[in-house]
Specification:
Strand content: 35-45%
Largest sheet: 4 strands, antiparallel
Number of strands: 30
Length: 361
């Protein structure tokens, strides 16, 4: 098993030997990594780089990082506008997702400023999904808008393992959207969410999900860490339940992990408000629920409990079987092999961690 860590100074690949996790190699040293994806169908590694001069680039490796290739970057069609009179230009690659086993060359790509792209040929060419780009809500700057950034961005893509035409995306800020026809049409799925920062907190579009994940064993159960709490649906997004711990820590945060066999299990890493963005009480912890969010347990064993300013970004927590790993904004990397009960610091000297994912190997 390998652990891929995307940082503001490169990609770090860890390998699990018989007795320990060890750094195997550093890739793209000095370059900010905006996205890391390991395709479970073929173990192709994908990395998005944010070149300071050349802009965004996409690299992929079919041999676990021994060699890398590039693909042409997706482009908005000629004349596409983010707003009237403002041309749409790719700002950042946020996420990638495979399109299912029956579409072996299919890849979805989520970007900023709010463009969803699709490739049918393993990323050699991406096309803008114009049905979403032209959705009436996206054309309204009061419904799609930036959250801590100048533009809205698509950071989560969930493909239903039962039906590859059934896909969810999450947009900050706009909310969750669903297609049941492979992207030909889209509908908002935000009933029950709260947008406390808007005059009408129950708006149909204008929400700020931070991360969206669905349980493989029961894909109708979807979790989201949201700007305004933690939410869960058991009916495929038709309605959302607020499972925030009203008297505890699990509330605001970015990172989320779920159990793909047990739809009631999830992990979040709390932070204090969008203004402060520090660990609660300057003590780092991971919170776990095993009953669908009705109760939460704070897991602290092995994590710093004094003067800790770490927080964890949305793509920087990952789970594989009994193993969880997360990286922080101050370059610390922690790993647990007992579902989060205890933690070990693998590294305390990385650059800011923006992405964590497991890969076979």
């Amino acid at each position: 098993m390998k652990l891929l860590i995307g940082t503001s100074k490169g990609l770090i690949a860890y390998h699990r030997s018989s007795d320990a996790w060890k750094i195997e190699k550093a890739h793209f040293v000095g370059m900010p990594v905006s996205m890391v994806f390991a395709d479970p169908r073929n173990n192709t590694w994908w990395v998005g780089l944010a070149h300071r001069h050349w802009g965004q680039k996409l690299h992929y490796s079919e041999d676990e990082g021994r060699s890398w290739k590039t693909v042409p970057m997706p482009k908005y069609p000629a004349g596409a506008e983010y707003r009237a009179g403002k041309p749409a230009v790719l700002k950042k690659v946020w996420c990638m997702q495979q399109a299912g086993p029956n579409r072996p060359g299919g890849l979805w790509l989520g970007t900023e400023p709010g463009g969803l792209f699709y490739s049918a040929d393993n990323g050699q060419q991406f096309e803008l999904v114009e049905s979403l780009w032209n959705h009436p809500s996206r054309l309204d700057e009061n419904q799609w808008f930036g959250a801590g950034r100048d533009f809205p961005f698509i950071h989560s893509i969930v493909v239903d393992p039962r039906d590859e035409d059934h896909v969810y995306i999450a947009v900050s800020c706009a909310g969750v959207f669903e297609t049941t026809d492979g992207g030909q049409s889209w509908a908002p799925r935000n009933n029950g969410l709260i947008a406390a920062y808007l005059p009408n907190p129950q708006v149909e579009v204008g929400h700020d999900p931070h991360l969206l994940l669905a349980c493989n064993a029961n894909p109708d159960v979807i979790w989201q860490q949201n700007h305004c709490g933690i939410f869960r649906t058991t009916n495929g997004g038709q309605s959302w339940d607020n499972v925030t711990d009203k008297d505890g820590l699990p509330d605001y945060g970015f990172a989320l992990a779920i159990d793909h066999e047990d739809p009631d299990k999830a992990w979040v890493i709390p932070a204090v408000s969008d203004e402060m963005r520090v660990a609660p009480g300057l003590a780092l912890c991971v919170c776990r629920t095993e009953d669908g969010g009705r109760s939460w347990q704070a897991l602290r064993n092995g994590l710093p409990q004094e003067h800790c300013f770490d927080i964890v970004f949305r793509h920087s927590l990952a789970k594989q079987d009994n193993i969880l790993a997360f990286g922080t904004t101050t370059g610390n990397l922690y790993l647990s092999e007992d579902y989060g009960d205890s933690w070990t610091c693998l590294s305390s000297h990385l650059a800011r961690v923006d992405a964590v994912t497991f890969a076979p190997g």
